[in-house]
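INPUT
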Amino acid sequence: MAAHLSYGRVNLNILREAARKELREFLDKCAGSKAIVWDEYLTGPFGLIAQYSLLKEHEVEKMFTLKSGRLPPADVKNIIFFVRPRLELMDIIADNVLSEDKMHSPREFHILFVPRRSMLCEQRLKEQCVLGSFNNIDEYILDLIPYDGDLLSMEYESAFRECYLENDQTSLFHTAKGLMTLQALYGTIPQIFGKGDCARHVANMMLRMKREFAGTQNQILPVFDTLLLLDRNVDLLTPLATQLTYEGLIDEIYGINNGYVKLPPEKFSQKKQGEASKDLPIESKKLQLNSAEELYGEIRDKNFNAVGAALSKKAKVISAAFEERHNAKTVGEIKQFVSQLPHMQAARSSLANHTSIAELIKDITTSEAFFDKLTVEQEFMTGVDTDKVNTYIEDCIAQKDPLIKILRLVCMQSVCNNGLKQKVLDFYKREILQTYGFEHILTLNNLEKGGLLKPQTGSRNNHPTIRKTLKLWMEDANEQNPNDISYVYSGYAPLSIRLTQVLARPGWRSIEEVLKMLPGPHFEERQTLPSGLHKKRQQGENRTTLVFFLGGVTYAEIAALRFLSQMEDSGMEYVVATTKLINGTTWMKSLMDRPESQTA
Amino acid sequence: MAFITANWSPLGDTFYRKTELYEMCWTLRDGFKDSLVAAAPYGGPIAVLREPIRRSPSSRPQLDIFSASGVSIASLTWKSGPVVHLGWTVNDELLCIQEDGTVLIYDLFGTFKRHFSMGQEVVQTHVLEAKVFHSPYGTGIAIVTGSFRFTLTTNIEDLKLRRLPEVPGLQEKPSSWLVLSQDRQTKVLLSVGSEMFVLDNTSCTAVVPPGLSPQTGSIIHMSVSFSYKYLALFTDTGHLWTGSAHLQDKLSELDTKQTVTPKQMVWCRRPQSQQPSVVLMWDSLLLVAGLSNDTIQFALDESSVLVGEMDGVRIVGATRQELLQEVPLVCQDIFKIASMAPGALLLEAHREYQKSSQKADEYLREIKEQSMLGEAVRQCVDAAAHEYDPSTQKSLMRAASFGKCFLTDFSPDSFVSVCRELRVLNALRDAAVGQPITHDQYKQLTLQVLIDRLVYRQFYPLAIEICHYLKIPDFLGVSRVLKHWASCKVQQKDLSDEAIARAVCGKVGDSPGVSYSHIAAKAFECGRTELAIKLLDSEPRSGDQVPLLLRMKRSQLALSKAVESGDTDLVYTVVSYLKNEMNRGDFFMTLRNQPVALSLYRQFCKLQEPDTLKDLYNQDDDHQELANFYVTASYKEQRLETRVSLLQSAVDEFNKARNDFCAKATEDEMKLLRFQRKLDEEKGAGLQGLSLQATAEVLLSLGLHKQAEQLYRDFRIPDKRYWWLKLTSLADKGDWEELDKFSKSKKSPIGYLPFVEVCMKHNNKYEAKKYVSRVTPEQKVKAHLAVGDVHGAADVAIERRLDAEISAVLSRVSSSDRPIIERLQRAAAAKK
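OUTPUT
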C-alpha cells in the first residue's frame, strides 16, 4: 500500500506504520459502530496515513464534516471528533453536543486531538459544560507525516506566518516533538546543525526534551548521521522564484495538495470508440503524485525542458516492450509476457497521463507572459537593475495581473536588493493599494514584518556578495544533463540547498562571512549516543542527513537535494522534512490578510 | 555436614525439619501473655498489643511493631478503644479492629493512616471476633457481632460491607469459624456444636464434612490451608478431620488424644508436598499430624505463635523463631542417609576432592557411568536454593561448580541465578533486615515486590545494592528506590530546605524515571512550598512543573517555566489561569515581562477578544499594530462615518508610529471613501468599497470622464497606469472614437503597442492597424505580428537585422510562403 515509503535510504514506512497502529488502537478503544466528525483541514494529512478502508475495518460507518448545529443522524454507537486543538472548533463541538437529541438512543462522544491535546481546549469544553459528555479525550500524535520515500511533512500550513509574524512558536514545539518521535524510531541523531532563530529554538527544545526522555532511551543504531535545521527566512528568495522542475511546475500551476493534484479534465477524457466526444468529464481529474509511480519518480525532478525527451524515450521503451509479444513463441515466453502485462499497462497509462500533463504545462511555459516573467525573475536573481522601479512589474499592475504574482515579484526584487529604496518601495506599495484596494495595506505590513519587503537601510547591499560566494547564479546551467543544482531554476541555485551542500563539503567554516550576513545564528550541537551505538562505517558508505525546513520547502529545493543525493561523489544522502510543502503562491497566500473576509 | 539431618523427623515416608531462623532480638517481659499478636506471612512484621482489654484506667495497652527478627520498628501507647483483633494487610499495614467495629490502619512505623467502621450496628452489639484474610481481591476483614451476625469486606481499599444472612437458630457464639475464598466468592464457614454451615452472600447452607462420624463430637477448631484448598477440623473428642475445602472429599481422620482446644491449628504444606500436615499447638505441645495418620510431637518450652506460610509454618516464640517445613524432595535425595542420588554422590565426590582423596574420582566415575552428572549438578543447585544455612548453601554450590567442570554443554544460567538469588536472600534474612523468606516465597513474591518491601521499610541502601547487583534496569529498580527515598526525605522536619534539596538532587541526579515534580508534590503536601520549588527546578518535564507551581500559587514562576518548555498550550493554560487570578493591570504587566506569552495571548485575543487586543497594544505603545487594528476594525463596520473615524484613528496611530506612507495611504482611502459616497449619492454609481483603480474604471465605463480625470489628479495616479486604465476601459466599451482621441491627446507614456494589443484582444484589427505605425521601432515587429501582418513584420525585421526579431518572424511565417522565408534567411545570413 505504501511501499514507496520503504524504498528510500531510510524506511519511512516504519513511521507510517507506527502512526497507523496508534490510530487503530484509538478506534478500538471506542467499541462498537462509529461515525467520525472531521475537522476538514485534517482529512488531507490523514489520507497519507490511512485510507477509508482502514477506518471501515474498525467499524467506522459514517463520516461528517465538522460544522455547527445538529449532527446528521447516524445509527452508530460512537461519535468521534477528529480535530485540531483550536478554540473555535471547540465551540462548534460544544454546539454539536448540546443540540444532540437527548431522547434519541444515547450516542457516546469522543475527541481525538491532532496532533496534541490541549488543556486550553479542554478548559473551553468545560466552560461550555460539555466536557463531561466525552467518554474519551485522547491525542493522536501526528507531527511528521511520511509523504514520500525521502520526504516528511507536518502539513502545518501556517507555520511560517506564526513564527515570523505572530511570534507564536507552537509549530516549532510540534517540530521538536516530531523529531523526538523520529529519533525514538530511528535512533538518536548524533549531530545537529542549524541556521536561524527558529532552528536554534527547535534544537534547544530537542536537547531539553532529550533530558525528559532520559532513561527510556532507545537502543537503536542511528539511521541519520546529521540533522540540519534551516529557517525559511534564511532563504526567502527561493520560494519566490518560479520553479522549473516538472513537479515544481505542476505545483506552481495547479497546486499539489497533500500529494494530490487536480487537473483540468479536457486532456484526460477517455477516448473510446463510438463515444461522443462532447461528453467531456466536468469534474477535474485527481491524480496522486509520488514515487510509487515509477515514471513520475524518474521525471519529477527534471528540469521541465528535459521532460519531453524523457517521456518520448519512455514511450519507445514501452512500445518496444509491447512489441515483445511478437517474439514470444513458446508457451513459457507468452506466459511471461502476460505476467508482465499489468505492469506494462500501468506504465502505459502513467505515460499517457504525464504526456497530457506535460502538454498542459508546455502551453503555459511557452507563452510570452511566462517568458517575460521568467526574464524579470532572472534579471533580479542576477542583480540587474534591482534598485529601480521595474517596468514589467509596473505594466503588470496596470494590467491588473493577479496580486500574488505582483507581490512575488516585488518581494523578489526587494530580497535580491537587500531592501528597496524608500521611493521605489513606496511607489510599489501605492500602486498596489490603488489598484488592488486599500485593504492590502495589512498584507503589505505583514510582508514588511516578515522581511520579504523592506526599505533599504544604511548598510550596503550584501546580496551580490552572497550570490557570488555561494555561486547562486550559474551562467551555463545544463537542463538536460545537470551537473549542478542550479538546473532546478534554470540558472539559480537555491540558497538553502547551497548551504546544505557546503555543510557537507567543505563545511560551514568556509563561509562564515556569508552566514553572518544571513539572519539568525548558526550553530552545531552534538548528542551523545549510548555507548555501543557508534556506527562503524563501511568504506564508501554514504552518510545520511535529515534536512528540516522550518517554514516550508519547495519541490524544486527537494529536487535539488535529490540531485545531490544521486551525485556519485557527494557521499551524502538527504531526507527532507518540513512544516509544509510550499510554493510562492501558497506561501504568499498564507501571509495575506483579508479583513473583509472576517465579516463574512 | 553430618548434622544436616539432625533436625529431621520422619513423618510417614517423608521428613520434616525445624530450622532455627533467629534468636529473637526483642525482650518480651511475659512472652505473649495477655497479648494480641499478629505476624504477617512472607517473613513480614509482627505486631504485639499488650493487654488489649484495659484492666484499669491507669494502664494503657502498649502496641509494639517488630520486624520478623524482633527488631523494634515502632512502639506506641494505645489510646483508642479496646482492640479485638490485629492483622496485617498485603501492603504491610496494620489493621486494629476495635470492639466497636472501628478499624484503625497504621503503617509499619506506627503512624496512623486512616480508619473506617464495620457498620453502625456493631457499635451497639460489639465485635465478638474478627479475622483478617487475603484473597485475590486484596486484604479483607470478617467479623461476628454480638448478635451473632457476620459482616465482611473483601477489600479494605475499596470498602464494601456485606452483611451475611442470619444463621437460623444461632443463639450463641459459633464454636469456630473461618473465611473461605473459593471460586471468586468469599464465604464464611462456621460450626455450631457438631453442625456446620456455609454462609455466602445470599444464603446459609448446612454442610456435613464427608466421613466425619457424628460421635466424634462438636467441631471446636478449624483451619484452612494457605491456598484455601484444604480444610482441617478439630473436634472436642480430639479428632482431627482433614479434607478439601469444598467439603467434597475426606483426606484423613486422626485421633490426637488431646481434648483441649488447641491454641492454634495451621496447615503445613509445600509445593509438591509428599506429606502435607496440620500443625496443632497447645500450651506446651506442638503436634504435627500427617495425613498418613503419622505424627511428630515437639515439646514447647515457651508460648509461641504459629505463622502459616506457603511452604511451611513459622513458630515465633518469645526467644527464638523456627521454620517447620517438609524437607524438599531434592534435599532429601541429597542428604538422606546412604542416599545414592547423583547429587549426593557429587557432594561426596567434591568433599573427597577437597580432601585430595582419589575417592573423588571414583564417585565422579560412578555418576558419569550413569550419565547423571548434569542431573547431579542440577540437584545440588536446587537443593542449595532450599537451604537456609549459608555454609550448606556454599558446599552445595561448590559441589555443583565442581561437577560443572566435567560437563561441556551445561547452561550456567540456573547456577548463576541461584547464586545471585541466594546472596540476596541471605542479605534479606539477616537479623538486621529481618525478612526470613524462603526461595519458594521469593519466587512467589517476585523481586519487584521484594524491593518495594525493602523500600517501604526504608532499607534504601540495601534495595539499591540489590538493584545494582541483579542488574535491574534503572527505571524499574534504582529509580523507584530513589523516588521513595526522596519522598521520604522531604518529610524530615529537622533538616533545612536547602540541605534536603541538595541531598535529594545529589542522590537522585538525572536518574531516569524519577519525577522531581512527584517529590516536590510530596514536599508541598507537607507544607514545604519553598522546598518544593527548589526541587521543581530540577524537573526536566515542564509539563509536570507547571500544574504544581500553579497549585502552589507561584503563577509567575509557572509562566516562565511554561515559556521555557516551548509548549504553547502550557503557556496558554498558565495565561488563562493568570487572567482569572490577577487584576488586569498586574496581568498585563506580567505578560510584558514574557514576550512569548504576550504574543500568544495576542493571538488568543485576536480571535476571541479583539477589544483586549487593543488595550494590549495601547499598553505597549505599539502604534503600528494599533493602526492595523483600526484598519481591520474599519472593514467590519457598515456605516461610512464609523469607518472613516476608525481610519482616522489609524492615521493618528500610523503617524505616531512614524509610518508616513501608511498614514498618507490611509488618508487617501478616507478621501476615496468620501468621494465614492458623493458619487454614489449623486449618480448611483455603486462605487463604495472599490479600489481607486476600480472606481476609475467604473467611472469611465459610465462615461464620467470628468470625474475619472479628477481622481487621476487628486490621487496622483501615475500616467502610465492611467493610460492603461483608460485604454482598456475605452476598448471594453468599444468606444473606438474616444480611444483614438485619447491616443492623440498627448504622447503615450506606455507607447502604442498596448493600443495594438488591446484592440486585437477585442478582435478589432481595423482599429489595431491604426496604431501600428505609431509604435516605436523596437516594438514594431511585435506590433505587425500582433495584427497578423507577417510581411510588414518581415520588412521591419530585415531592416533592423536583429536575430531575435528575424527568428520571431520566421516562426510565424507559413511554410508555403517561400519568398519571405528566403528573404529573411538571406538577411540573417548577411548579418553573419
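end of record. The longest helix of chain A spans residues 331-365.
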